[in-house]
Predict the structure.
Amino acid sequence: MGSGPVSIGGDCHRPRPERLGRYSISQVSQTRSKAAVRSGAKVRTKSGRRPPVKVKSGPELPLLPIVVGGILVVLAVAIIIYSVVNGHGAKGPTVPAAAGIPCDQLEHTQVHYHVALQIIDQGVVHPIPAGIGIVTDSAGNVSCYYWLHVHPQYPDVIHIESPASDKFTLGQFFSVWSAWGGKTQPLDSTHVSTITLTPDEKLYTYIDASNGKGPQLFTGDPKTIVLTKHEVISLEITSGTPTTPPTFDWNSSTNAGL
């Protein structure tokens, strides 16, 4: 007896596949496969592992514009700092220039030297006001410095601090004094600041150039005297015979280092 299909009545009948409800097992399997494809289900590889997932990266940032922008910002900051430190365009907004000398927010160091000024009336030395040329606000904060000014800690010493190697005169200092104090400070044959000479008085001007020769009588217009390093200018008012003005000590504890 063979194991092949059994013929009944001459017909050969094939064995029927098992049914699962109304559908065969093969039909269910095919239906599931198609459903998985339609729904986007992940397919496993033959080894049973899922294929690697590709990560979609975002757009890359442009590096060059960022670097250039950073450099420009640094340059802008450097220019601002340089301008402030060097006092460019730093004039006080409401303080006018005096005899061509502006009032800057910062002191300069390109040109820096000192001159002493002594005003002597009938043998008595009259100190010049402290702070000439240094403008302050209502709170006492410094607003600006004229290139010619007087620091309170150095009595009777004119500080010449400017950005250029210009020559300055005693007349320009008196102009700064006038602008700073809001009152004219004349310097002529009959006036020295607020002192008015009487008819019997006369003004004598001495210059000590610190060259070892001592005070020398100057007979010209005192406003034209050019200010030079460690020069001592004495304006002596007297009704009698002029005397040698007092010595100004540049090496004193107060003036040491000037």
Q: What stands out?
A: Helices lie at 25-38, 63-86, 170-181. The first strand starts at residue 7 and ends at 8.
